[in-house]
Specification:
The chain is built from 10 helices and 11 strands. The chain is of the alpha/beta class and 326 residues long. The protein folds into 2 domains: 128 residues, Glycogen Phosphorylase B (Rossmann fold, 3-Layer(aba) Sandwich), CATH 3.40.50.2000; 155 residues, Glycogen Phosphorylase B (Rossmann fold, 3-Layer(aba) Sandwich), CATH 3.40.50. The longest helix is centred in the N-terminal third of the chain and has 13 residues.
């Protein structure tokens, strides 16, 4: 999703081009309706598995398109090799310090990577510099859900609707469930209608069970595929989430968002937009790349439920008119 500013920049630089995006199958709905892209190719992807049998027909179809240019925004060995196999005579890509030794031969125009201290969208835009594409004055990331889908959630029109996402891909990014339960009690007492997403992993399902044990009255969203999750998030008045996919989806949908960051890289992944809040821990000692927090007390414990409620009230006053009302 952070590649959207780069795709938009390519469209501005080459307004009449036929722009295709090759993405993991699970991510394809994020770009399916984006006006900058002519076609989205969704490919199967299982971490650690090459899946050559599934990939080869796609590679043959890509080569049949006879692309003039190709840029690798994925930044991994798989995407580098696919860039090479595309057959495009001009191929861009960033050259990292490590990775597949033959990666240098995948690109006709290798680019020195940008600093890891900038937002990931700007890092991807930097790769386009050989095409005389400069970063825009402001970065915009916008998603376009499927307009044919109806809102899958029931709303209370008398209350602001807030969707909460308790899950994340790795444990170090999880705000403690006890904090979520405390926040739920505080926020509902202030008149907010809270709905909780249901993750796809066993860990995320366990988190929801723990939350229900502490706050049996919590309301859960049904299990939604990505297109319907986007529609649900777009209908909310605000979203509160750990540093993970739904947080980025919500900000790109223009929904007021509170992002909870622990031991991560907020400089690369912070939510873009003035109407968002980022709450993070201070002086985290966790090593970058680890899956768990290495402090005696989890870093995320430092983010108090009262602080989250205060930020929610500043973004969305308790008596604010729900977006679901006319």
């Amino acid at each position: 999703m952070v590649s959207i500013p780069a795709l938009m920049a390519i469209r501005r630089r080459f307004p009449d081009c036929e722009l295709h995006a090759l993405v993991p199958e699970a991510s394809a709905p994020l770009l399916r309706h984006h006006p900058a892209v002519n076609r989205v190719w969704g490919v199967p992807r299982v971490p650690g598995k090459a899946q050559l049998r599934q990939y080869w027909p796609i590679v043959r179809a890509l080569r049949a398109e006879r692309f003039d240019k190709c840029v690798d925004l994925g930044g991994n060995d798989r995407s580098a090799i696919t860039t090479f196999l595309s057959g495009a005579p001009e191929r861009l890509g960033a050259m990292p310090q490590n990775g597949f030794w033959g990666r240098r031969f995948c690109y006709t125009k290798p680019v020195v990577p940008a600093s890891m201290e900038m937002h990931e969208s700007l890092r991807l835009l930097h790769i386009l510099s050989p095409w005389n594409i400069a970063p825009p004055a402001t970065i915009e990331i916008r998603l376009y859900p499927d307009s044919a889908l109806s809102n899958p959630i029931a709303r209370d029109p008398a209350k602001p609707t807030v969707i909460c996402n308790t899950g994340a891909a790795v444990p170090k990014k999880l705000w403690p469930i006890a904090h979520w339960a405390r926040f739920h009690s505080l926020a509902t007492a202030r008149g907010y209608d809270l709905l909780y997403t249901r993750g796809v992993s066993a860990m995320e399902e366990q988190l929801i069970r723990e939350l229900q044990a502490l706050a049996p009255e919590v309301r859960l969203l049904p299990k939604l595929d990505l297109p319907r999750l986007l529609v649900a998030l777009q209908s909310a008045d605000a979203v509160i989430s750990n540093d993970t996919g739904p947080m980025h989806f919500a900000t790109a949908l223009g929904v007021k968002t509170i992002a909870l960051f622990g031991p991560g890289e907020e400089k690369r992944w912070f939510p873009i937009g003035a109407e968002h809040r980022l709450l993070r821990t201070q002086d985290c000692i966790c090593v970058k790349g680890t899956f768990v927090c290495r402090r005696a007390n989890h870093c995320m414990l430092e983010i108090a439920p009262e602080a989250v409620l205060e930020n929610l009230e500043s973004l969305l006053p308790p008596g604010a008119r729900s977006r679901g009302t006319s």
